[in-house]
Amino acid sequence: MTLKTKRTARTDATPVLISDKDGAIMIGCSPATWWRRVSDGTLPQPIKIGGLTRWRRDEILAAIEDASAKRTLGAKR
After folding, report:
1. Which H or E run includes 55?
2. Given a cut of 70, is residue 36 above it in pLDDT?
3. CA 25/CA 60 separation, integer angstroms
4. Regarding predicted confidence, which is higher, 7 or 68?
5. Which of 56, 61, 64 is nearest to 16 (CA)?
């Protein structure tokens, strides 16, 4: 008996990994500002796959949530 791997198509068209240009569009900044935020730790470090540099979309969304939480906490003081 052989075990076959069943591949299923993703029903969600949202990519798991995004480029710097897509990330910059996502947060409304230029690619240069995106890279500054990566350098200063505001955004996570990328994943390198061969010659590609990508970020996990869920990590970018978490960074946005973290920034929103800090903003909300700062406003209550």
Report:
1. strand 52-56
2. yes
3. 12
4. 68
5. 56
